[in-house]
Write a structure and sequence with these properties.
Blueprint: H1 2-15, H2 20-40
């Protein structure tokens, strides 16, 4: 389920150009989420 979600997100991201600021914001959000998960275990 998570892998499919990632693929769908990639397709949506490729289908339109996003500003560099949006890209950085998404990368930061992803990093924060993975940090939250890693701190849990």
């Amino acid at each position: 389920m998570c892998e499919k979600e990632g693929i769908i997100r990639d397709i949506k991201r490729i289908s339109y150009y996003e500003k560099p600021s949006e890209k950085n914001r998404r990368r930061r959000r992803k990093a924060a989420r993975s940090a939250k998960f890693s701190s849990r275990y």
